[in-house]
Design a protein that fits this description.
This protein is an alpha+beta fold. The chain is built from 13 helices and eight strands. The N and C termini lie far apart (89 Å).
Length: 393
Amino acid sequence: MYPMSLIKSRLNSGLLAAALLSLLLLAADSIASSAVDEFLRSYVTNYEQQKFSEQVPLVQSNKSLIPAAVKKLVQDALSKDQDQNRKMYLLNMASSLASMHMHQNGDDKPLSEVEPIIKEEVEKMNARLAELMKWKTEERVIGNFVMMRHREEEKEQGLAPVLYPHWRHRIFFECKVCHTSIFRMKRWANDISQEKIAAGEQCGKCHDGGISFSATDEKHCGRCHVAATAAAQALHDPASFDQEELKKTADRIGAKWRPENLPGGKMPLDKWGFIDWLELKRRNVFTPLASLDKNVEEETRNGKIVFRTSSDFVDDVLFDHRIHSDWITCDTCHPEFFVPELGGNRVKMIQISKGRWCGHCHGKVSFTFANCKRCHSVPKSEQIEGALLRSKH
């Protein structure tokens, strides 16, 4: 038999060796992970800057890292906090890398693994788009949103989707009441649920039976879940709404609605048939609440910026901070959408039309950017007193 001291000594040596091996493996994993991250930084930079000639030697010289790099891109893409655009961007990046790896290094395994994932995600996206298009007519009024996140649950309960009319709420509340303290100013970014509403969050901030009807009372389900039902018709035609009903609601919550100031007794509409909110304010038709807290002092910003257009035939754009800050808070736009620095934002019309810059609101909850003269209102020969000048670029 071995002496106990020898057994203990060998046991301790074995434990020490195992511990050292674990540390070495962890260190190796860390080094490998760091190498993969460094490779991806270079690959993504080349990809975004279109330095395609530099990608080939990069892929060839990092053959051993690419399978792990592709997996990392896929994992990042499928993480819960990724929006759809970012997800598809990362998956396309993974596919591009895997494809180059196959052609340059002769290994098709990463590509064979990533292609089914992309196919599945594209099928999901197409199904989601098809479902959205089915409800598109319900959103023909600017600011009307059909909420589809919990569609399967609603089907099981025999409920129509929620049709949320921004314009109806905007009569009583400025945008800043909800955005951005209650809701992010981005569609699909708020994960609205009945559980959160019942807990007094999200819509439950108002729909608690006090400010407005209770969203937890089943008898009121049909007041929100109205998309594609007869009850939705009133939300498709703002001009036909009962003015006395609006006045009673406004008086009850502390806002003001003065139908006697309406031109001809009707809602002022632009040529696209959407409500002209500035005209309503000019005529003193309404005074919406600026906050749910009556002790909060409303904050507005003055300051005008003239954006010089690059065309000699298109009038310049006048941006008035006061008009916007009457409705929204500064952090709605800054710094997420606009760098708060004159000349720091290369605003392009084509990008606005795709939902960037001013397109975050205009065309979705505010007047469409197709209404050119609403913004392009300053002739080249005119000077706006006190306005900052943003040179054309």
